[in-house]
Automatic annotation (TrEMBL):
CDD domains: WHTH_GntR (cd07377). SUPFAM superfamilies: GntR ligand-binding domain-like, Winged helix' DNA-binding domain. The keyword Transcription regulation applies. The lineage of its organism: Bacteria, Bacillati, Actinomycetota, Actinomycetes, Pseudonocardiales. The keyword Transcription applies. This is GntR family transcriptional regulator. Keywords: DNA-binding, Transcription, Transcription regulation. It comes from the Bacteria. Residues 15-82 form the HTH gntR-type domain.
């Protein structure tokens, strides 16, 4: 069972280099490491990732299409403005799709899938005890992926993946309250799935996702990403 969980968390395909660049830069923007107005030079990014300039440029063009960066004539790529409302909108979209998928999973999930979810919970607890942030992030991804697979709704899962890729993942475990939130919320969701309680699963998943938005907003506010005038309630 542990091998199955590992396979779930790792996935089956190598991510294309431009997509890896987009993920790397996107997370730096959302985490506040790169601020609005900062220029994103190709060479330092390529050096940091150990790749050539070509996939870096392609990745930045992807971020331009998503609104995360702007291409300034004769100057290069610049991080675009990113507001608290932008962040909350991304989480709201994720919450709507994830809660619907979880509700569908409650109707269709198999005993084998429930067993794998139980194993994910156990391994996540062990990762917390070992303070293994990378493993916690991978198992968090595995938890949600298993539920989405159980929903058996390819189109909704595709739309959710498109929304989730806009949100940071690698530094989630470092956000105050994020690990404890997962420890409290994930077992409740699995318990509701075992009971096939569609309404409860939908509500729990929605609350779980939106609580992550609150924690991330608080963290980024502490980092000074937004002024009081830019923040929304």
């Amino acid at each position: 069972m542990a091998d199955e969980v590992t396979a779930i968390s790792r996935g089956n395909h190598r991510t294309p280099l431009p997509e890896e660049v987009a993920t790397y830069v996107r997370e730096r923007i959302i985490s506040g490491e790169v601020r609005p107005g900062d220029f994103l030079r190709l060479e330092p990014i390529a050096e940091a990732m150990g790749i050539s300039n070509t996939p870096v440029r392609e990745g930045l063009l992807t971020l331009q299409s998503e609104g995360f960066v702007e291409l300034v004539p004769r100057r290069g790529f610049m991080a675009a403005a990113f507001t608290e409302q932008d962040l909350r909108d991304l989480f709201w979209t994720q919450a709507q799709l994830a809660s619907e998928l979880a509700a569908r999973a409650a109707k269709r999930i198999t005993p084998e899938q429930l067993e794998r979810l139980d194993a994910v919970l156990a391994e996540h607890e062990a990762a917390v005890d070992n303070d293994d942030a990378e493993r916690m992030a991978a198992l968090g991804h595995a938890f949600h992926r298993e539920i989405n697979l159980a929903a058996d709704s390819r189109r909704l899962t595709f739309l959710l993946a498109a929304a989730v890729k806009h949100l940071p993942n690698r530094f989630y475990a470092s956000i105050e309250g994020q690990v404890e939130g997962a420890r409290q919320d994930h077992p409740k969701i699995v318990e509701a799935l075992h009971r096939r309680d569609v309404r409860k699963v939908r509500s729990l998943m929605n609350q779980h996702i939106l609580a992550g938005a609150d924690r991330l907003v608080d963290e980024l506010s502490k980092r000074g990403l937004w002024s009081d005038e830019e923040s929304v309630s």
